[in-house]
Amino acid sequence: MIKFDNVSKRYTSGYEGLSNVSFSMEAGEMAFLTGHSGAGKSTLLKLIGLLEHATRGQVMVDGRNLGKVKSRQIPYHRRKIGMIFQDHRLLHDRTVFDNVAMPLIVSGASRAETGRRVRAALDKVNLLNKEKAYPITLSGGEQQRVGIARAVVSKPPVVLADEPTGNLDPELSKEIMELFLQFNQVGVTLLIATHDIDLVKQMNQRVLTLGSGQLIRDTTNLQEAF
Amino acid sequence: MKADAKKPVKKSSSPSMIHIWFLRHLQVAISSLGRLTRSPIGTLMTATVLGIAVSLPAGMWVMLDNVKQISGNWDAGASLSMFLKADTDEQQVDELIGKLKLMPEIQHIAYVTKDDALVEFQQFSGLGQALEILQENPLPAVLIITPTLQHSTPLQADLLLKQLNQEPLADLTQLDMEWVERFHAITEIAIRAVIVLASVLSLAVLLIIGNTIRLEIQNRHDEIEITKLVGATNSFIRRPFLYTGFWYGLLGGLIAWFLVTISLWLLSGPIEKLTGLYQSQFRLDVLDLPTTVVLLMGSAFLGLAGARIAVGRHLRAIEPD
Ligand SMILES: Nc1ncnc2c1ncn2[C@@H]1O[C@H](COP(=O)(O)OP(=O)(O)OP(=O)(O)O)[C@@H](O)[C@H]1O
Ligand SMILES: [Mg+2]
Fold first, then answer.
1. CATH T-level topology, domain B78-175
2. Residue B320: pLDDT band by 50, 70, 90 thresholds?
3. Residue ranges of E strands in chain B
């Protein structure tokens, strides 16, 4: 589903955020992406969502070479990828319902279908009772769950999360990870960047470790990973 | 396989696809209008600036139309004076009038006999009895020839003059049209001035709307970024801004319509008084339906164009990171 082949990303500043990264993930696989701050975790996720372009090498997503995706096709590529951010990126002048509905509205789903799917997604993250609330009135954990509902509402085959538990206490973090496991069980390919090593240890999944832009470890053996 | 399965579904739903497309546009149009009404004062201020810019050329255009209406009356009065040779007798004059009446260019002929001319001259010159000293009437008989409306333009009237000058009985034929020519020239200049003014102010409208939309794009920076992030196409993101430009333009056009109508109404009293003094049939025309339609559509189109330019330039700069 995701395949990096000797991928490098050099920012316009000249700084190399990623160098020669190669790995691949099958459809329905789940993996954590760790590494020190500035190691290139966010950069890697941005390449998959085409928020940035690789300067060298090849990124393949769902059988498609992202180097060949024209700028007008980028929106259609992004619809296949749900993205979750540490800062949630919700719109504060819209209700929870409207925030979650955004991916459906941009892809032109009917009103009935939108209502049905938004409620299903909110139900999954346990926020059905908050659909009319504004994000500002929600706790950090609730806001993050709204962000997650938005990422999965259109049932994308790939979900990327960049520090989804960054600001949450361990209890809430665990809850969110359980949610991710559930998505993975229905076949979603998940790549989660995080600092939270304790949490990764509990989850017992594949771990990709970046160091200074290079992939320094790729293992399912947790003893080896840390 | 997959394509085969999809095809029939698409076909059968194609009429409702158009329906959905139309509905979606309507939704965006209404929500853009709703957004404008949420900040009524700012919207009204911008629309008024646009209205003033549009009303200037529109108002001038209507005035010009009115002036042309007056000039139409004057053109009808444009005439040629044919001074007849002194030895022309009445029968020759009758024959000449009969011949001239057959010419399609000529609408009307008035015959001023030598005696009539003298009486008129005595009355208007104030010389009165002084002229009676003269043994003989020195004034020639005159035919006052009014061309038809089509032949009243300077060019056509001049052609007619050349033709009439061939007439052997005529001593001299004069075209009394210099002022008409000048008037036409002045109208011509005024039309050009309106066109220049309209172009300059159209540019101003484009810039005002472009700038308004640019600010709007800046205000909604986050929203645009996130919408792009969840896979919105450029045309989806563009649409509300284009409708905003359209509404601004239409609103500006409506305000311009009111400004012009009110101005004309204020002017109509004094003008009727003035033209009444000259016993003119002149009535000040208001904005008629075709002009109103052109005004509103043109203004809305300018709004749309201004928004399109701004959106093209500024939306591309916003990319999620
Ligand atoms: N737009 C940019 N221009 C220039 N350099 C950048 C840009 N974005 C990131 N970088 C640099 O690339 C490197 C990798 O950044 P990245 O955000 O991928 O790290 P990260 O692993 O996500 O770190 P963190 O855990 O702190 O979020 C950093 O050194 C950063 O300074
Ligand atoms: Mg990061």
1. Alpha-Beta Plaits (3.30.70)
2. confident
3. 80-84, 106-112, 142-147, 170-175
Most A CBs within 10 A among B216, B221, B230, hence the mutation to make, goes to B230
The Cα–Cα gap between A93 and A114 comes to 19
Hey, what are B13's tokens? 């739903």
Q: Quick one: how far is CA A154 from the chain centroid? A: 14
**Helix and strand element counts for chain A (H, E):** 8, 10
pLDDT > 70: percent of chain B: 84
Amino acid symbol at B299: S
Query: Residue A21: CB within 6 Å of ligand 1?
Result: no
In this structure, are residues A66 and A56 in contact, taking their beta carbons and an 8 Å threshold? no
List the domain boundaries for chain B.
Answer: 31-72+183-314, 78-175
CB contact under 8 A, B233 and A72: yes
Of B221, B209, B244, the residue nearest B38 (C-alpha): B244
Spatial CA neighbour of A100 closest among A139, A131, A69, A62: A131
Cα B149 to Cα B153: distance, rounded to the nearest angstrom: 8
Q: Tokens 């009772």 identify what position?
A: A129
* Helices and strands in chain B, H and E counts: 10, 4
- Core vs surface per residue A45-78: b (16+ CB within 10 A) or e: bbbbbbbbebbebebbbbeeebeebeeeebbebb
Q: Does CATH number 3.40.50.300 belong to domain A2-80+157-225?
A: yes
Which residue is associated with the tokens 């941009």? A106
Give B-chain residues touching A76 at CB under 8 angstroms: 231, 233
DSSP bridge pairs for A85: A162
Task: Tell me the pLDDT tens digit for each residue of B75-95.
Answer: 555 678 888 888 888 898 888
* Domain-wise residue ranges, chain A: 2-80+157-225, 92-155
**C-alpha to C-alpha distances, B144 to A92, B85, B88, B101, B121, nearest whole angstrom:** 83, 15, 16, 12, 16
DSSP of B98-116? HHHHT-TTEEEEEEE-HHH
Tokens of A131: 């659909």
CA pair distance B149, B80, nearest whole angstrom: 13
pTM of the model: 0.75
Question: Which ligand is in closest contact with the Cα of B321?
Answer: 1
Q: Give the chain B residue whose CA is nearest to the CA of A91.
A: B223
Q: What are phi and psi of B32, to 5 degrees?
A: -65, -40
Q: Would you say the CB of residue A165 lies under 6 angstroms from ligand 1? A: no
Ligand 1, atom 24: closest residue by C-alpha: A37
Nearest-Cα distance to chain B for A89, in Å, is 7
ipTM for the complex shown: 0.91
Q: Give, for A217, the enclosing helix (H) or strand (E).
A: strand A214-219
CB of B233 closer than 8 Å to CB of A75: yes
Name the phi and psi angles at B111, rounded to 5: -105, 120
Q: Report the distance separating Cα A218 and Cα A29, nearest Å.
A: 14
